[in-house]
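Q: How would the C-alpha cells look for this protein?
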Amino acid sequence: MSSNDVPLPVPLPELSAATTTSSSVEDKSDEKDAPIAGTGINFADEDAEVAHQHRPSGIGLPRVGTKELRRELTRDEKELANAGYQKETPDTKSEGKLVDIIEQHLTPEALAVKMGADFNVKVPAESLGLTTAEAARRLATNGANVLTPPVKKGAWRKYFDSLTSLFNLLLILCGVLEYVLLGVDYHANFANTYLGAILIAVAFLNAGIEYYQVAKSEAILASFLALIPPACTVLRDGQISTIPAQGLVHGDVVLVRMGDKTPADLYIFAAGSLKVDNSSLTGESEPQERHAVPEGDPAKAAEAKNLVFNSTLVVSGEGWGVVVRTGDNTFIGQIANLTGNEAGKKSPLAEEIESFVKKISGLAIGSAILFFIIGIASVYKGHAASTVTFAITILVAFVPEGLPATVTVSSFLPFLALHETKQHPPSAFALNRREKNGFKERSREGSPRSRGELLPFFTHFYFLSTGIQTLGAITLLATDKTGTLTRNQMTVSNVWTGCVMYTDFQANNDDDEAQPLVIGATNMTTIIDVCALNSKIKFNRTDIPFSQREVLGDATETGLTRFAAKYVPNSDYDAARAAAPVVHSVPFNSETKTALVIVEKTHVNGSMTLLIKGAPERVLERCVTYLDRDGKDKKLDDEFKVMYEGAYDYMASRGHRCIATAQLLLPAAEYPQGFEFVKAPFDGYTFVGLVSLEDPPKHGVREAIGTLRLAGIQVAMVTGDHPKTAEAIARKINLITGETKADVAKRTGRPIDTIDEDEYDAVVIHGDRIDSLEGWEWDQIFRHTEIVFARTSPKHKLEIVKHAQQLGHIVGVTGDGVNDSPALKRADLGIAMNLSGSDVSKEAANMLLLDDNFASIVHGVHEGRLIFANLKRSIRYTVTHSIPEVIPQLLYILVPVPLPLSALLILVIDLGFELFVALTFAFDPPESASAIMSLPPRRPVTERSIASVKSKALNRIKTQAIDPETGLAKEPSRVGKWISSLKAPFTRTFWREAFETVDGEVLVDNSLLSYSYLEAGVIEMIGALVGYFVVFYKSGFTPNDLRTAQKAQNNTPQILYFLSNSPDFTNSAGRVLNAQDQVDAWAKAQSIMYLSIFIIQCFNIFACKAKFLPPFGKQVLTNYWNFAGILGGAALAMFIIYTPPLHTVFGGTYKLSPLYWLIPVAFGFLLLAWSTARVYITRRRLNSEKVQPIKGLSMYATQYSAKSATRPVKA
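A: Here is the predicted structure in C-alpha cell form.
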C-alpha cells in the first residue's frame, strides 16, 4: 500500500490546524501558508499585524523583557546586529550555470514540441523515441550525461604549496644564505655548508611529509568514490535497449522500474504506482509518489509530481519519462555546482598554527637582525660573514624546525596501524588506545593486512588533513536527520490492540503506561498475520535468510514486513506465508486507501480469512466489532471510539505513520474451500488494532548527542522533513529536552507573542522563513541551546552554516545526501556517511564516517581533543628549549663568553632527539578520562566572543569599499591587500585585536608561552648555564677569566683563545693554560650545555603533561614511546659527545665526566616540583570551566526490545 496516501493524523492541540504531523509532502501547499507552531521564534507574515510583536534580547541588543518594542531598530543596533552577516560577492559565473527547472509546468504535448521528442502518452511502449542518429547528434552537441568533476591541483602544485609555507621558506632562505657566504670566503665558510644543507633538507623533508599524508588521504578517498557507471533502459528507433546512462540526451524516452536509479531528470508522462526515494536530495524519509500530470504541475521542481531526478531510487512501480535535463543541468548537478563554488575553509588548528608561525618567525627574524647588529658592532667587528652565521644560529634557535613535521605526523600517527599476519595478533603503536575506545582493527575489505603494511585508516572515520583535530574543536554540530540520526527505514514502534498500547522502541517521550511488545500479548498474532500475509513486498533473493535480503517496496510495506518477520513463528517468514496462500487480493489504491487479501487460514467457522490494512478511518468505518483484551469480538461503542482516538493521537503526536488492521473470518457455509471471489466482502469486519511506524533513531544516537552536549557542543538538526516529525525525533534523541515557545504558551495559558526568549530553550525553524531572517533574528536562534531547522533546501543548509560561522562557531556538518553537500563543503568540518552517502557528499566532505554510526562521532571528538592536547604538549615541550639556546648566545655577545652552543648542535637538538620525542606525545593517553569530555570546546562561543566578532566585522565594514551598483563590498586587489597588511601594524585596531583576550584555549596561548619561556625555559637555561660555568671552573676558567679571554679578540692585535693554535692563557689564579687545555675546556663546556638541555628536557617530557594531575603516577608512565624517545636521544647524545671522529664537526669531547650530569638531573627534579605546584595553583580554575549538567538528558540505550529482561529507567 502507499505510505503517502494514509490519512494524516489529527493535529496536536498546540499546533495550528494547518500544520500536520505527517512527513508526507502532499500538504506542502497548505503548510507554507500556515504558521509554524512549536517554533521558538514567532515570525509575523509581511501583511500580518505586528503591533504586538516582541523582539527578544539578542547579542549586542538591549534587554527588553516583555515590553513592547518599536518596529524599527535604531541605525546603530541594525549595524551591530547585522555585522558579520554581509552577503558575499556573487559568483556570476556559477550563477549562470544555475538553470531553474520549469519543464514540470508544461503539458505533455508542449514538452514534446520543446524537446523534439516522440512519445505516446496512452501506450508508452509504442513510443518511437529519438532516432539513433539524432541521439548521436545531440550527444555531440550537449555532451555526455555526467557531472563535471571538480578541478583539483596537480601533484607538483600540492608539493609546492607545502614547500612554500613560512617556516620552510625561512629555512630555505637561511640555507641559501650560507651558500652565498661560501662565495664570499670559501675556505673560512666551508664548514657552514653542512648547516646550509641541513636547513634546506629539513624544509624539503617537511614539505614531503605533509604532501605524502595529503596525497595518501586523497588517493584512499578516490577509491571510495570509484563506481561503475550505471546503465538504463531507453527507447530509440521504436526499440527498447539498454545503454550507459552517460549516453542519454534531451528528448530520450526512458523506462524506470522498481530498484532502478533514475539516470537523468525525467518528465513522467505515464506511470503505475511509481514512488521514488528523494531523501538524498530533499531529506524527506518517505518515498514520494510520482505520476503524469496532463495539465502540467504548477509546483516547484522539488515538489512536482511529474518529475523524477537523477540519482534517486525507484522504490515501487514503474514509469515512462522524457529526459529534460542531463549532466550539470540536472537537479543534482546544480547542487554539485553549488558545492563546487564553496571554498573549503582552513581548519581552526591550521589557522592557529599559521598565526603561531607568523609570530615565532617574526620574533626569530627580529632577534636575528638585532643580534646581527650587536655582533657586527662588537664580537664580530669587521667580520660580516661570521656575523651572518651567528645571526642564523639565533634564528635556528628560535625556529622549531621540526614543528611542521610534528604537527603533520602527530595528526596521523594515532591512526597508523602496523598489521601482522593472520597467525599473530595485530601490533600497532596506537592499537592499545583504540581498543579501549571500542575500535576494531580491520582493513577496508575486512581482512587483516600483510605484515609491515603501513596505512592510514580509522575504523570509524576516514579523514583528510587536520579533520580529526577540527572534530575535537567544533562548537556546533549541524546534522541531517534522515539516514544520519535515523535509519532511513520505516520501523514499527507502537501497536495498539485490545485497548492496550505496546511499544517496540523505547523513547523518552513514551507514556509510562505503554507496555513492552511481546508476541504472546493478546491479539498480537493476528496483527503479525495481517502484516505478513497482506503484503506485496518483493525481495532481491529468496534463497538466503530474511535478515540478509534486500526488501524491495515502499517504506511502509517494508517496515511492516520486517516487523512481521521478526515475530512470525520460528522466525520463518517464508514458511508463514506459504502456510496461508492468498486466494484473492485487492491492491492498495488511492480511493479506498486500503489493501485487502483473502488467505487460506483456518478458523472455527471456516478455512478462509479476510485481512485488511490501510488508513485508520477507512478501516474503522467498515468494522462493526473489535477484539477486546481477551481476544473476543465486542461491538464497537462510544467508549471504544474514545480509547481509539486517544491511541491515534498518542501515535500521531510522535510523528508516527498510523496503519489500521482488521479481519473477517469467512464462514465455510458461505465461502467454501475453493470459492472463486469476484468481489470481496466490503464491511462487517472486526477491528484488530493500530500499528504505527516511524523512521527511528539509530542505535546509540541518543547517548551520543547527550555526550556531545555534556561536552559543551551545541547540536542542531537540519532536515528537509516536516517540522513536527523533526521535533518528535529530536525529543527522542536528547536534541530537545526543554520547552518550545508554543509549549510555554500552552503551559502558562498566555498568548504566544508574549513569551520572552529567556523562557524557553528549544526552537523549531521552518525553512521558508530562513531567506527573510535578519541579523538579530539569527542571533536569537543561535542563542538557544536546542535548535531544529525543518523543511530546508540545500541553499538553506548552506546559509545556516554560514551564519553560524559568522558568529564564531566552529561548525561540523554531518550528512549523507546530495542536498547536504554544499553545507558539507562550507563547514569547518564536513562528515559524510560512507555506506549510505552519495558520491557528491563524499567528495564535498573532509571526513567519512566509515560505519555510518553517528555514535562514533563521540569517539572522534574525544580523539580530536586528545590529539589537540597532545599536540599542545608537544609544542610546549619543543618550544621550551628555545630559552636555553638563545640566552647563552646573548651572553656570548654581551658579556662576552665563549660560544655555549654552535648552530650545528642547536640543529642536533631541534632535529635530533627533540623531534622524535615530540612525535611520541601523539600516543599519550588522556591525563584524565573524564575531564577531556567534560570541558567545553577550546574556543567556545560566548556573549563576549560574539560581541568581539561583531565589533571586528563592523570595523571591516566601515573600511571596505562598496560597489554602488550592487551594494556589496568590493573584493580588494592583491596589491590593495598587501598595502593594507603593511598599514595594519600602525593602526590602533590592529594592536587592540592582537592583545584582545579570548575565551577558551588556543594552540599556543599565554599559558603555554609562560610555561615554555618564563618557567620551564628559565629553569632549563639556569641548569645548562650552571653546568657550563662549573665545567669551565673545574678546567681553570672562572667567569671573569672567560670574559677576559673572550674580550681579547677585540684587542689590537687580535688574540683568539680556545683554538688549537691559540697562545697560552694565564687565569686569575696564575695558572697557565695552553691551547689544548683551552680547547678541551671549551669542548667540555659545550658538551655539558648540550647534555644539560637533553637531560632536563627528559624531565620536561613528564612535567609538560601535568594539567589536571601532578607529573607522577601511572598516567604519565603509560606511553612507552616516550621512553623510546629518551633512549634514542641518549644514544644520539653519547654518539655525538663521546665519539672522537664527530668532534671535528660538532665539537664534543670524550673527556667530559658523567658526574657533571648530576647538575642537570637536579634541575630536572626542580622542574617536576614546579610543575606539581602549578597543577595545584590552576586546578580550581580548571574545575570551574567544566560544563554544567543538563536537565532532562536520557542517557540510557537508544534501542529497546521487548526481549530485554528489564525496562530501562529514565535518567
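The chain has a mean pLDDT of 77.

The longest helix spans residues 192-225.

Upvote if useful.
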